[in-house]
Amino acid sequence: MSKSGRAGEKCGRPKMPVAATNTVQAPKPLPVPNSDFYDLASTLSADELALLKKVRSYMETNVAPIIDKYWADDAFPFELLPSFKELGIGGLGYEGYGCAGGSQAQFGFVAMELARVDPSFCTFYGVHSGLAMGSIYLDGSEEQKRQWLPQMARFEKIGCFGLTEPLVGSGASGGLTTTAKREGDTWILNGQKRWIGNAPWCDLSIIWARDVADNQVKGFIVENKTTPGFSVEKIEHKIALKVVQNGEITLQDVRVPEANRLQAGNSFRDTARVLRMTRYMVGWASTGAQMGAYEHTLAYTQKRLQFGKPIASFQLVQDLLAKMLANVTACQCLMVRLAQLDDAGKLQDQHAALAKAFCTAKGRETVAWGRELLGGNGIVADFNVARFFADIEALYSYEGTYQMQNLIVGKAITGLSAFV
């Protein structure tokens, strides 16, 4: 036997034909969909990031598996409220009064995370913690803050925000038809409010009305369930934000004590302070909706086979996925900078307006591409993208229309008002 043969016998592995060693390699694992392409979450502190992960886990574990059914049924998952309270995110961004505190960046990332799973759930949270609590935090007296904010931060009392009316939307600054008339230490409110999220079931409403004495807009805390003359009718047959329970409020000789008038809310300028803060939250929410749509779309294209391979391998599909991600990333970067301005006390109306307009417009574009990539499945709620596709339409319109936001920006950059 040759030396090479004896060596082979000694090693215990006979020489094999070259062809026999060519085994089929297992497919390379595909990347898990991740919409934080620039790793912006790393800008948060360790504690903030831990809370964000906690919120993501909650939303994916508790909300994601059931939300499609609730969306289809126009219903809200009330059974989740006890566990949702335990997240401790009531009053994020507000200091004191039992509120969660923290930076505006943390508040924004949490809102974005909620919307990433369901924009409706984010809207419920934003109406309560942003609009209702924000009205009391910014325009309430010290006594009002101590009375209401701790209960609201614990979600023991849920609030809503009544500004929009059946015939008054963009013209709320000077055209409210809901009136407030003072008689001694009591105010009498008459009028209607429409599209008020949480109104059919919440505990208190922040109602904005025009004082007939000085024609100025003032804010009032109305306890829904115990105040005579206050009634709510749920708005049915919506095609967007179907989980949110919107209502039309009717106020007929509703009597509110002076103690429940927001003591620092004496003109629409004071109302606008609340809107500035919550308006840019819609930027976070619409960015979160884009993240959810992008991630569901990418996962779908990685699994959907046509012509014997995943459609994610096709050039035109990758082109749209890259465009979706670019929109998401641009909106994320804009919102992170906006939060920095807010934390520094530099946030102005035009900053919030630009963010709301840009992010919601890009949101429409992003989710439309997602719907397109899913083909027929893009209009079925079971595949998730349809829900984002419909919900973004509401985000595009509420908290001030796209055109109104652009006019706010236009006035700031030109020095000239185009409002009429």
TrEMBL record:
Residues 272-413 form the Acyl-CoA dehydrogenase/oxidase C-terminal domain. Its cofactor is FAD. InterPro entries: ACX4-like (IPR045008), Acyl-CoA_DH_CS (IPR006089), Acyl-CoA_Oxase/DH_mid-dom (IPR006091), Acyl-CoA_Oxase/DH_mid-dom_sf (IPR046373), AcylCo_DH-like_C (IPR036250), AcylCo_DH/oxidase_C (IPR009075), AcylCoA_DH/ox_N (IPR013786), AcylCoA_DH/ox_N_sf (IPR037069). Gene3D superfamilies: Acyl-CoA dehydrogenase/oxidase, N-terminal domain, Butyryl-CoA Dehydrogenase, subunit A, domain 2, Butyryl-CoA Dehydrogenase, subunit A, domain 3. Residues 160-254 form the Acyl-CoA oxidase/dehydrogenase middle domain. Residues 46-156 form the Acyl-CoA dehydrogenase/oxidase N-terminal domain. Keywords: FAD, Flavoprotein, Oxidoreductase. Belongs to the acyl-CoA dehydrogenase family. This is Acyl-CoA dehydrogenase family protein. It comes from Sinorhizobium chiapasense.
